[in-house]
Every structure is written in C-alpha cells, then in structure tokens.
Design goal:
single chain, 209 residues, alpha/beta, nine-stranded mixed β-sheet, 34% strand, globular
Length: 209
C-alpha cells in the first residue's frame, strides 16, 4: 500500500514498517527487544525463539526494499540489559553499512554507550525535510508532518458474532502512528475520526478500512 504525504511517497508494509521511498529509509517503531527474555526471567511462559522473528523481518525489509537507512521511532529495547541486546548487536554488525538513527522512547533506558558501540545515532527527535520523527504522538501537530509510535495501534473488526483486533497504521492529516514492530507487545484500540485513514495489517496484506 502506497500513500503520498507532502509530495513524498511512503509504502505501508505488512511487516509493520513504512518505507520512505525517496530517502531509501525504513521507519520502524517499538521493537521492545528484551521483553520476551524479561518475561521469561519473570516466569512467564513465552516461546524462547519468538524474538528471532524481529530480526528476520528486519532483514527481509532491508533486502527487499533496498534500504540504506533505518529510523527507529523509540522503544528499541524494553527494559534493563539482557542477552537479547547481544543478539541485536550481532545482527547490527551483519548490516553495518545501514545507517541507523533512534529517537528515544520511554523504555530506552540503556546507556548511550551501548548504542554508540554498534554505530547507532541517538537523538531525542529527528527532523528532515518537512517531517518530524518522534516516539510519542503530538496532540496538535501543525507545521511539520509527524511520524511516531508508542501507542501500538490496533483496529477491531466486528461482526454480530465475532471480533478480531489487527495491528494498523493510523494516518491522520498531520501525523502517522506506526504499529508496534515487536512481537508480544500488545495494542491499543483506535477509532475512526474525521480526517483519519486506518490501514489494517492482515497477514501479508495492508488494507484500508
């Protein structure tokens, strides 16, 4: 699914990311790496290999979109340091030629030195062209179009007897909210409002509601 914002083309991808075509840049929000290991260390039964899905999807996105850069919209790592960081660092070294920028989220509490060791640029926010890249959504974005995460948006499809919640992209007049990229991150149900487009992700397709 391709949309145009401020004369730039953006591709909404079923892997829960956006590809900014003119900048060969992937936008990815809320990986929450380390969360699965954190759960398991707390005695919660989560499949130990589930986090590998994050790395596989990122690799697929880079190779299939000819991406040269990634902007991470915060909450890369869920909590304090654990073994998943080393797995991510190894993945990063494999794709060392890809520029990576992270705009910090509320869960990004790891020392900056860990990011710098694997050549990830750390910013509170990132501005480029007439776009701003943040973690938290803005209440009243005005001059520049905002891309953000944090909310983990989902949309509920309902019939008379059944319902299902699916991750979605929220495209408002001045702001886009990306779905959570990570697995086991939960979601917040979003509603239709005036001027809003909602694009749900159903397996390998992105569809407008």
């Amino acid at each position: 699914m391709q949309i145009e914002i401020n004369n730039h083309l953006f591709r909404l991808l079923p892997q829960k990311a956006i590809f900014w075509k003119t900048r060969k840049t992937l936008l990815i929000g809320d990986l929450h790496l380390g969360k699965i290991t954190h759960f398991r260390n707390s005695g919660i039964a989560v499949p130990s290999g589930a986090f590998l899905n994050n790395f596989q999807r990122m690799e697929h996105l880079i190779l299939n979109n000819d991406a040269e850069r990634i902007i991470l919209l915060g909450d890369l790592f869920h909590n304090i340091y654990n073994a998943e960081w080393e797995l991510f660092a190894n993945w990063r070294r494999k794709f060392h030629s890809i520029e990576i920028i992270i705009v910090l989220g509320n869960h990004d509490i790891l020392p900056y030195a860990l990011f710098e060791e694997i050549n990830i640029r750390v910013e509170d926010y990132w501005q480029e062209e007439n776009f701003i890249f943040l973690h938290h959504p803005m209440e009243h974005p005005e001059e520049n179009y905002v891309f953000c995460g944090h909310v983990h948006p989902v949309y509920c499809l309902r019939s008379r007897t059944q319902s299902i919640k699916l991750p979605c992209f929220i495209i408002d007049n001045n702001q886009a909210i990306l779905p959570s990229f990570g697995v086991f991150t939960g979601g917040y149900e979003m509603k239709k409002v005036k001027g809003r487009s909602i694009f749900i992700i159903a397996e390998n397709e992105v569809m407008k509601v």
